[in-house]
Inverse folding.
């Protein structure tokens, strides 16, 4: 599996991804925003785009669909529940569906609600496992729930699906929010030395060449995957005394998300 990350260079800091078969050069584009940029990235790499996948219906993840399809004839895939809102979807996806790209790539569809009600992540197995997670999991953070989402559902997705992935799984999110999210982690957990180091790196990084994290790293620097951490819980209680001495993981997650909304 070949992965080409495309930096959209916009205010929302979107990342798009080309996932290609190393034998045939066939490629799937995840969340195309600027179609010309996606087409150029495919051309430069010698890829042929045959499929478009939208992780969810927000416009910053779908705006390039029409022009990419016009240029390539690619099929459009998206969560069955988001298909009507996106329009032009050829295949509605459900949990467990396997998407093939060329001869060598198989991507498992995960139904991952929370940021929106109908959001999919793609999981690549094999010796280089990878997660394409849209606006569900970010580097050191979690998606917001402002536009059709639900923090309780996002918690379920994190704890029941994402947290169980192998530590070596590479994480490919839909935006570069790494520096701001790490600053949030350190505000919750000032003693997290790995997060402090990662923040210094992220503040200086060129987004076209940003570090690709793994689930193992995320579990060490992402507050939304550290719900039992005593320092995080204690600092959260300063803001929300009503959560009590021993809040459950769901309460910690939902309050972290609420705090992050205005942080
Ligand atoms: Zn979104
Ligand atoms: Zn987005």
């Amino acid at each position: 599996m070949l992965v080409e990350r495309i930096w959209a260079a916009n205010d929302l800091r979107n990342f798009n991804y080309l996932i290609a078969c190393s034998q045939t050069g066939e490629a799937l584009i995840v969340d195309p925003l600027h179609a010309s940029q996606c087409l150029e990235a495919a051309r430069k790499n010698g890829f042929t785009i045959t499929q478009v996948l939208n992780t969810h219906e927000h416009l910053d993840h779908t705006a390039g669909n029409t022009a990419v399809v016009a240029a390539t004839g690619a099929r459009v895939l998206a969560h069955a529940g988001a298909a009507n809102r996106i329009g032009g979807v050829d295949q509605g996806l459900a949990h467990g569906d396997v998407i093939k790209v060329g001869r060598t790539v198989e991507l498992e569809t995960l139904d991952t609600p929370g940021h929106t009600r109908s959001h999919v992540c793609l999981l690549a197995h094999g010796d280089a496992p990878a997660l394409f997670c849209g606006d569900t999991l970010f580097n050191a953070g979690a998606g917001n729930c402002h536009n059709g989402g639900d923090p309780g559902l996002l918690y379920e997705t994190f704890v029941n699906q994402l947290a169980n992935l192998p530590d070596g799984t590479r994480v490919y999110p839909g935006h570069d929010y790494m520096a701001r999210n790490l600053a949030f982690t350190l505000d919750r957990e000032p003693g997290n030395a790995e997060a402090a180091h990662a923040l210094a790196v992220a503040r200086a990084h060129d987004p076209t060449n940003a570090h690709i994290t793994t689930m193992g790293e995320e579990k060490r620097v992402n507050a939304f995957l550290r719900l039992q951490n005593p320092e995080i819980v204690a600092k959260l209680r300063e803001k929300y005394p009503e959560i009590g001495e021993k809040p459950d993981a769901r309460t910690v997650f939902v309050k972290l998300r609420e705090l992050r909304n205005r942080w």
